[in-house]
Amino acid sequence: MLFCHPQPESYHQHSAGYIREALAPFLKNEEARLLAESDGGAAFQFVLCAATSPAVKLQDESLTYLNQGQSYEIRLLNRKLLEFTDRSSKYVKSVVRVVFHERRLQYAEHQQLEGWRWNRPGDRILDLDIPLSVGILEPRSHPLHLNTIEFLWDPVKNASVFIQVNCISTEFTPRKHGGEKGVPFRIQVDTFSANEHGEYLEQVHSSSCQVKVFKPKGADRKLKTDRERISRKTFQDREKYQQSHETTLLKECSPWPDALNLTVHGSSNTPSPIYHSSPMSGSFTDGNCSPGQPEDLLMSGCSDHLLPSSSLLDTQQWLHRHRFAPFSRLFSRFSGADLLRMSREDLIQICGPADGIRLFNTMKGRFIQPRLTIYLFQQQGGLQPPVKPGDGDVYQALFLEELTLSDLSEKIAVLYGIAPRKITNIYRQKPNGIHVLVSDEMVQNFQEESSFLLSTIRDENTDGFHVVLK
Questions:
Q1: What is the reported pTM?
Q2: Is 219 left (phi over 0), alpha (psi -120 to 50) or beta?
């Protein structure tokens, strides 16, 4: 379906002179500045219709204040019309996105956006105001990419797109003191041309600008405050600051890393960060479990280390095995060497204090003192009388980091090479023969280095087992 507004026939003339004449009313005040600031070699020029702040030092990048939910125009201009007259397709595709300006938040963008989605279900970070937009076709906003929109437009005719930013800068700061303390964003536009197969793969232009988003009317108040503050300074001090302009020119920049993937696939093919247990098809043995039987499982599931030689796939599998699946997409392009180069402070900044410290300790193979150690010996017959320890029987140690039933169940499953879901219940058999269902409280009251005889009873309703500790 096409979303474009009908224009008078004269609007569609291919004359560059006529287009400049039609655009003259909104260009004449800013034209000289835009031409001076822009790169003479760039074919495209994108202008955000919002005033820049006067309280920015000359050596810093310009800063523009926006109101949450307000429609702002981005003018899409092509200054070299002849370059697009011989293209296989007369349209180009532009992808507009709102991203973080600070590198610290760029590393954790996926987690930040997922947190915003959780707090604002059904809302989008970036919206397209279609009724106000002119000259665009096939606008799209993927439900998984809350901060991205895309559309087609004819570079010979130019276009005007209106966007709305629905998040405010303080939503991504630990302590919310108002817009002034919020984090800055970037509005970036990546433009692609089509090949002979009609696929928009060739990146032809990327530009962006720095913005801060306030609650409604907050941007106007902040801009007024900045202007008053600068006006009170001496002439010599004012010379150190940028002049405020009524529009913001997007400066050329590098393409956003995911821009090409979004254009090719249209959606993210990255699997959801769900923890998957290591595949285990084994079962409890009928005889004694030799320490050598689960050796391969223990080497790959519990005792493995991240190595500098680990490939991208190996690193992803290692993250999943060690319960760092929520960060697998964030580190999707990291090899083992890349991850090992990161310091403890880097990981805390990217993953947060709790997960950052845990990831650093796991990567470096730090030994974690178990909270409880118990010893298990599997009986040869599921319901045979207890075997007296010490007659050459081999017990296996179980180390619990958490005093919970789930940790006990998981460690037993790993020890004997089965999936944790196959353990239906765990019972403790008392000397008088009764079976007591094991709970978290019972695990917390186990004595250090207790010894248990382990037997199993097959669950008649499922393909699992009941585990009995004697």
A1: 0.49
A2: alpha
